[in-house]
Please model this.
Amino acid sequence: MMEKGALDVVVVGGGNAALCAALSAREHGANVLVLERAPKDQRGGNSAFTEGSFRMVHSGLKDVIKIVPDLSKEEIARTDFGEYTAEQYLDDLGRITQYYIDPDLAEIIVRTSTDTVHWIREKGVRFLPFYGLYAHRDKGRSKFFGGVVVCAAGGGRALVEAEHSAAEKRGIVIRYGAQVTGLVRGRSGVEGVRVIVDGVEEEVRARAVVLACGGFEANREWRTRYLGPGWDLAKVRGSRFNTGDGIRMALDIGAQPYGQWSGCHSVSWERYAPDFGDSSAPLGGYRHGYAYSIMINSEGKRFLDEGADFRNYTYAKYGRIVLQQPGSYAWQVFDSQVTHLLMNEYRIKGATKAQANTLEELADRMGDVDRAQFLSTVREYNAAVKRDVQFDPSIKDGRRTVGLEIDKSNWANPIEVPPFEAYSVGCGITFTFGGLKIDTTAHVLDISDTPLPGLFAAGELVGGIFYFNYPGSSGLMAGAVFGRIAGREAASFAKAR
Ligand SMILES: Cc1cc2nc3c(=O)[nH]c(=O)nc-3n(C[C@H](O)[C@H](O)[C@H](O)COP(=O)(O)OP(=O)(O)OC[C@H]3O[C@@H](n4cnc5c(N)ncnc54)[C@H](O)[C@@H]3O)c2cc1C
Model:
């Protein structure tokens, strides 16, 4: 029996999944405490480092305008939002994860995605069309591609701040600098958590607990243990606080490990980026223009298909491939025909860059690439480009190479017009894929697929969703969907207890 006066729901974590859980539990009548490990000025986890973009089902303008009601006439006139059906979303999740994704969890994400974005909006988050990464501008018109159309105005930091103020407004208490270290178990299941605040451990009793405290990407030791050798050296793109605590404490009481423990989301990232994300420039390490480049390793060879698909279907798996190259680095090489397509991140201070008017000089300036092999790679590549196909970055244009050991499938421009630019990248890890098994009510399951009474989970620490790769902007969406469900279910569990 829980004692009178105990809290209804404790939410562990302070990112998007946690705040959605807290808001939802409150909406369903629970009193809620949020325990966030980070200090207040660093609150919000990885969610605060994002662009705030959400992948949801939509059928074009008529859905977008409900989420962005302040769309201007001019924006409406110049934008083709396309559409993204539930079937496309399910296909993308299946294809991208090599059909390992838990079909029940996939179905829930897809079917409730649009409604969940509405719900977040009602809580006070403002959304905008996400022109930046997902729309191509041509002759004054913007055309969306790749399934994502909206993002929180002001990006991830603003998303998280709006979610926090919505929580505070509704009387949800948030404690910062509160590291949860374990779960308290009673005769009827989970009855609270142990937490360290200011170096002192205390017990917080609650009728239900929601774990939403991220994956283990910031834990160097676990990375090496589960992802493999070399991962200790990867750069963490976001929060330093996600060290797998929630996963560990649930496993300690018999939760079932689920999903791809050896897999993670990782990208081509500034080679000399700091060890953890820089909240003052959270997106500064991106090098997302690789589809217009050729990527070269230290041996001067190409090692992947830069144009295999739209960026948002390949970027999350290419960090691993860079990590696997000799020395764990690579260079993205562009010529002047495409550099206008590169985003601002290439122009900022801190980008490791070489520029030259000849390829020979460029090789010298890169300095750590086999010069002769690099020149021959570019020669062979240029000769293999199908120049008769029109280059078009807004579609998979089929302008490809033919006959190379590794062909480039789209957007293949010869590297021949100076000045040439090259950017050096390493591997940046975003979040890990392995975690806990939940059912469709976000209840954490034990090894026999039985719910652990009183324990719910959402966000990055849920396993079974992403494998091998990731369709861009589905992390916030999955976290919001299951956070909302976890909050609702935890509130109802608490009431019944
Ligand atoms: C640079 C970057 C850009 C991204 N861009 C996007 C994007 O635009 N769209 C998208 O969908 N996804 C994006 N992602 C992925 C996205 O960040 C995650 O999928 C999502 O934010 C996960 O939310 P979460 O709430 O599970 O975890 P987080 O937001 O990481 O929150 C975890 C929280 O748990 C807290 N915590 C950890 N341990 C403890 C503990 N022991 N006790 C208490 N609290 C603890 C942390 O401090 C943190 O507040 C991006 C990620 C990065 C790093």
Residues 7-216+433-496 form a domain with the FAD/NAD(P)-binding domain fold (CATH 3.50.50.60). The chain has two domains: 7-216+433-496, 266-428. The longest helix spans residues 474-496. The CA atoms of residues 309 and 380 lie 22 Å apart.
